[in-house]
Amino acid sequence: MKLPDHFSFSQYNLQDYVDCKFRFLLKHIHQLAWPAIESEPLLLQEARMELGQQFHRLIQQYFIGVEPGVLSNSIQTSELADWWQAFLSLKINEQPGTTQAEKMLSVSLNGHRLVAKFDLLLQRSSSSYTIYDWKTSTQAPSIRHLQGRLQSRVYPLVLWLSVTNSVTPPQNLPEIEMVYWFPAFPEVSLRFEYTHSNYEQDLDYLTHLIDEIQEMKEEDFTRTTDVKRCAYCQYRSLCDRGISAGALTPGSEVDSPDSDFYLDFDSL
Ligand code: SF4
Q: How far is 211 from 217, CA to CA, in rounded Å?
């Protein structure tokens, strides 16, 4: 399969491929816009998107040096104010090291670019890092689900490759941990160490995944048989997998763990 010029792999498009090959084909190769909204009601979805974007912007401004008091005064909703206070109580800025918000890295893998954009990268020492990712879903987080996401493999792998292939690679193997944190559930976080064994497994897995995609013919990009994957997909009507989207109502149970990610900001 010929990929578009300047195509980069990311956790976002690789997750689409793993979830549904046909979605990958439509979205990332044919770049087909399709009008179906991904969840309903639309106004609620838009409000959640806006809230999540405001939170990410706040954190970014905080780490480029805007005074916390100025940022606090800019907040206009109680929910965002609660998230902001929960974030401040983490006291990440008191940890030793250097921080970079919305940090993008790109590495070469199997003849392609593999990119990642970290909500926050904390470099604790010359070879020691923490990747933070804010998940602003208002649904209770599923740790098991997050661990299975491509993001949990792509982000630390990109950092590992970037560090070890740098002009001045560290003398020791990198120490990388990844933290998912949930401002709506500040007492919950998923923190895991990324080991050399993880690195080897992910390098092998992602190399083969990219090989597989390159060797696919168009007719091989089949629709998923797991129709739950379709509930939040923009191509539902095209695939005859329903007109109505999965519902996102305050406090409702989500019937697909993927709904969190359609409302997330990790589109790289
Ligand atoms: S509607 Fe379902 S089958 Fe069609 S692209 Fe989306 S996830 Fe795949």
A: 12
Query: Rounded to whole angstroms, how far apart are CA atoms 113 and 81?
Result: 38
Cα Rg of the chain, angstroms: 19
- Please give the model's pTM, rounded to 2 decimal places: 0.89
What atom in ligand 1 is closest to the CA of residue 26? 5
Could you list the residue range(s) of the whole structural domain that residue 130 is in? 8-262
Task: Tell me if 100 sits within 8 A of 130, measured CB to CB.
Answer: no
Strands (E), the chain: 8-10, 39-40, 98-109, 112-125, 128-134, 175-181, 189-194, 246-247
Helices 11-19 and 196-215 meet at what angle, rounded to 10?
60
Q: How far apart are the C-alpha atoms of 39 and 252, rounded to whole Å?
A: 13
Q: Is residue 1 part of a domain?
A: no
| pLDDT, averaged in runs of 10, over the chain (268 residues) | 90 96 96 71 76 95 96 96 97 95 95 96 96 88 86 98 88 94 92 96 97 95 94 88 60 40 50
Q: How many domains does the chain fold into?
A: 1
23 lines ligand 1 (CB under 6 A): yes
Cβ 231 under 6 angstroms from ligand 1: no
**17 within some domain:** yes
